[in-house]
Give the backbone structure.
Amino acid sequence: MKQHVNIAVFVPHQGCPKDCVFCNQSRITGQKRENILTGEAVRASIENQLSTVQPGQSAEIAYFGGSFTGLPRKYQTMLLSVAREYIDAGRVQGIRLSTRPDYIADHIMEYLLTYGVTTVELGCQSLDNEVLELSKRGHTAEDVVKAVKIVRKFPSVRLGLQVLPGLPGDTLEKSMETIKTIVALAPDFVRIYPALVIAGTELEWLYVTHQYKPLTVEEAVRWVAEMWVPLLQADIPVIRMGLHSSEDIRSDGTLLAGPFHPSFRQLVEEELYSRLLKRMIEEIGTVTNDLEVWIHPADETPLRGRGGVNWRGFVSGFAHSRVALRTSRTCKRQQISWRTAGLDDSQTLSFSSV
Ligand code: SF4
């Protein structure tokens, strides 16, 4: 399968008459709310990024950051036409855009398809109506289900859903219910961004007046680990966990509070490896023979855990055996296999079984 890259063009906040409590797109993307992109600026950004695309990679021009289908139609047409030039020239393979669930309709999808849109990402954030209301999203969980059904009428379009655990009124149980519904909706992929307090948002005011308490990093890691398991079981990829560590989010005064970590996904993987190793100890029971443990090389860091804590804890459970960690590219990601010396059979556990 070709490696996929996004040629990201941010269209901040424009087209969005809403003010969700957590959102200040200009702060997150580093662009001013009133910025209007010109065709030249879009082409320059695309050209600049295309120069880094390797032969054999498949690229989509990705309009992120706002509610694309809420933009003035003329502006959408300009952005789509520029992207279409690159598709027609065979330099990119499609267009990806993000929008709100209540800004999707059959006629909108038909319009997008004429320009070669290949992926639609819907910001659903939560599928709990109380959380949506407290976050002033201006749409309901039912709107999300309706929008998914509309996108699914167009089989050439890939569907992504974005969720924000930890919004006002959210609980782990509500987030798990959200994931249960998402699994039933069967998107092609999911993004999970734990809610952060960004300057200039209503959430900032709720936070400083003690009406909102964001998740800690530890809580968010635990929540997202729990949420990932049903998605893994359903074979729905989570292509992003935690906000991208851009210069802008890290600039002074932008991020006020909340579970931001530059390697958030790795923390979640460490958490699930910690659980997996505990499960392994239960499965293995008492052994005196040597033990060989196999993983994919890309998983070695999260398996070992911060400062090696996961692996040390595991090894200490086998005081009378030698335990060797081996890596092989033939192993699947997020999976551990082990074999006891003298026995032919190996056993395997994966994240989806914790
Ligand atoms: S999250 Fe999306 S819908 Fe809400 S204010 Fe930001 S751009 Fe608009």
